[in-house]
Structure formats: C-alpha cells, structure tokens
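Notes continue from the previous slide.

Worked example: a multi-chain complex. Inputs as given:
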Amino acid sequence: MTECGRQPTMMIVENDPVRRARLLDLVQGQAAWVADLCDLAARTPGGPVVILAGRSCAGAPRSVVRRLCRNGGVAFICVGWELESGPIALDGIYSVKDDEDGSALAALIERCRTALERPEDRSPAQPGRVTSVVSPKGGSGKTSVAINVAIALAQRSSGPVALVDCDLAYGDVAINLGLNPAYNVYDAAQCAADGGLHQDQLARFLVRHQSSGLLVLTAPTEPAYASTISADNLVTVIEMLRETCEHVVLDTSSTLNDVSVALARTVDDAIVVTGLDVSNVKNAKLGLQTMALLGVPRERLHLVVNRSDADVRLDCTAAEAALGRTPVVQIPQQMDIPVSLVTGEPVVTSEPKSSAALSFAALAVWLSADPPGSGDSTD
Ligand SMILES: Nc1ncnc2c1ncn2[C@@H]1O[C@H](COP(=O)(O)OP(=O)(O)O)[C@@H](O)[C@H]1O
Ligand SMILES: [Mg+2]
C-alpha cells in the first residue's frame, strides 16, 4: 500500500502511430498507450488516471466516455477534438487544441494530475480482485509479469496489494524481490488445514517488499513441501487475503494439476503470458483454451506478449490471428528485468520510466478497471 497520495497514471489512446508518437513526446514518454478507446472503456479504468484521447477517438459516443469516467478519479482530455454535447454534463472531460508546442495541453495535464493526486479510502466491505498470471510454458515471463504488475497495482491502489507465489515447488518470487522471510505459504496453508488461520496470523506470514509496500506470501523453500499443500487450503488463504487486500496477484507454475485447476476457479482475472516464438504461441493458445474450459470468461482472460521485440519471433499480427485476441500490452525485452534478480528491485521501481515499466503500469490500469458488464453504460 502506498502511504502517500496515489500518482495518476497517464494513458494515451490513439491508433495513428505518428500522432501517438507526438503525444508521447509531449508527455516525455511518461505514458502507457492503447490503440482503441472501446477496448479501454470496456473495462472502465479505476482512477487515478489521465487519459489523452487523440484524434482517432473523435466521434466517440458519449456513452463510451461516460463509462470510462464513471468511477471517478479519471480526467479525459480530448486532444484536437470535442465530445458532442449531450443532455447531461459529464465531469472530468476536457478539450484542448492540438497546438504546435503542446503548452496548453501540458498546462491542462498538470491541472488534472494535481486534482487527481489525493488519497482515497477503499470501502472495506468490497472484496479484493484476484488475478493469476499463467502460461503453460516455463520461462515465458510469468514471475516477472506477476511481480511487476503487483507492484504497479500497489503504486496505484489505496488498499493493500498482495502477491502469492503459487509456484509451490520452484517459486522464485522471493529471490526476485530479495526477500528471505521466516514464514511462507506452507505455514499459512498448514494453519488453514488446522482450521486456525485468522487474519492477524495471516498478516504475520506475509513479508513486505520495502520500496513498494507490496505484501508477499512466498513459496516454500523446499520443493518437497509443495505436495503437502492442498488446493483447498491454498484457496482458503487466497480468499482470506481477498477480504483485506484491494488486489491479490498470483504467480503460478506451468503445470496443470489440482492446484492450477482450483486457482482458475477462484480468480477474477487471468493474464496469459506468451512470447512470440512458435512454441510459445502454440502453448498460449492451449493455455487460453484451458482457462476458458475451467470457466474463466473470455472478457476476464487477458493476453500479454512478453519480449515483444525479441529476435526470434512471429509477427505480432500473425500471433494475434492464431490466438484470436489482441494483447492488452506488449512488454519489450529489457535487461532491467533480469537485473532484479541481483538487486531485488523490479523494473517498475528501479526504472519506472522505461517502456517495460510503462507497459506494466498500463496493465495495472487495465486490471483496476471494472470488468465489462459490471455497470450501466447508458447515457
Ligand atoms: N521482457 C523481458 N526482458 C528480458 N528478460 C526477461 C523478460 N521477461 C522475463 N525475463 C527474464 O527471463 C527469465 C524467465 O522469466 P520468468 O519471469 O522467471 O519466467 P517464468 O516465471 O514464466 O518461468 C528471467 O530471468 C527473467 O528475468
Ligand atoms: Mg516463474
């Protein structure tokens, strides 16, 4: 949990690459981007977020913009176009000329950021969202994605965020974050098995990643403990974390077993990570199918392409066609990601302005959003 006010995330929505590059330039690269407004609106981002909607969004229906802003904490800036006026005034919508030097836009962004930068209390009655990070392929980047997106969520959430290492035999969240805790998920699952797991006890089993405030339940230190943790007890632990945390992120193993089946039935959202080589894409397809068979609805399954710019790869469009969906974000290959194994500081905290960190921030915005169908979108 961040003790200070939450920093608004900047998002650019523009499908024209030249205009998008210009907007990115105007904000010194400090923004994540998506091409399509409807994709973003389908999930209604939770604040605080400043959305710069470029000219490719012109003509967007008011209902779409209204849906985007409905949770508050969102500033929506139409750059070079205006939203058609309607019967109801919409809060947090601005228009600005697409001027040469971008000074009007810069001033407006600053005003919006200052207005949005305030702590907000989350209603304790609302259960947290559980998101797993999955891939049938080892080495595809599950742990890196889970850690970085969990920290990006912690940076933008007002409530606590927890990361659980569910790769029970070979989990390496602890080594990636430089943690050496006295307790781990084995202790929590044992207490759950004995019927004696309480919130205060669970809190003792969590370790805090100092620079981000992320709460972590690490994997057992010995692979032999994995088989002693039942799927039911692990789910009990996760459900208890959901009661006190705004988000619970699960790193997982590539194995399909009773634990992975139980987790698939527990989560609200699942991120399927893939690289762009043929075998990764083939396995990601199987992973998406498996999650769907286990009952995760299509709109709760999110594709993330990792190492999107690696040398040996398929064209992203070919991969999208094979997988039947567009990735939510693409994460470039970046040396700062493996470097966290040495420093214990993931790229979102060590290099927050890098393109990988911005992709993780965009993914966190996506996951903080209301899922489709969770509210009224009429105008
Ligand atoms: N985008 C990336 N750029 C560079 N290295 C990466 C990237 N994603 C993951 N890695 C590195 O690849 C290795 C495997 O990633 P990891 O997240 O542990 O995969 P998994 O959990 O799926 O087995 C790690 O050393 C990690 O640091
Ligand atoms: Mg892993």
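Summary box: The chain is about 40% helix and 15% strand. Residues 1-5, 120-124 have pLDDT under 50 and may be disordered.
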